[in-house]
Design goal:
single chain, mainly beta, Cyclophilin, eight-stranded antiparallel β-barrel, 2 helices, 9 strands, 11% helix
């Protein structure tokens, strides 16, 4: 899967689970994602996805997760968390991701190719 932020394009390797398959079925999808905590962007999906949440422990820059059943979260810093998420995938090479996302809300396009 691909994620496009402005002029930057990032490859994402998807997890193998029911939530990811349901997410991929929504593609292509463009979302205005809001800034939160100086480490993530988030937005509500058009519809709820199946969940298999677990405590993440260490979140890594580039992790694409589902919070609850409907909130898509893209992390751009590595940190420890006690929250539970359903893993959707991970940006293959997150170098430059934080810079591409910026410090405010951003429009992100997700596509199959």
């Amino acid at each position: 899967m691909w994620m496009t932020v402005g002029e930057r394009r990032f490859a994402i390797t998807l997890a193998d689970n029911e939530a990811t398959r349901a997410f991929a079925a929504m593609l292509p999808l463009s979302m205005d994602m809001a800034e939160l905590n100086g480490n993530e962007k988030y937005a509500d999906l058009p519809k709820a996805l199946p969940t298999s949440a677990s405590r993440a422990g260490t979140i890594r820059s580039g992790d694409l997760m589902l919070y609850g059943s409907k909130t898509l979260v893209l992390f751009y810093l590595t940190f420890d968390s006690s929250y539970s998420y359903t893993r959707l995938g991970r940006v293959d090479d997150p170098a430059g991701l934080a810079q591409a996302l910026g410090r405010r809300g951003v429009r992100i396009a997700f596509s199959r190719n």
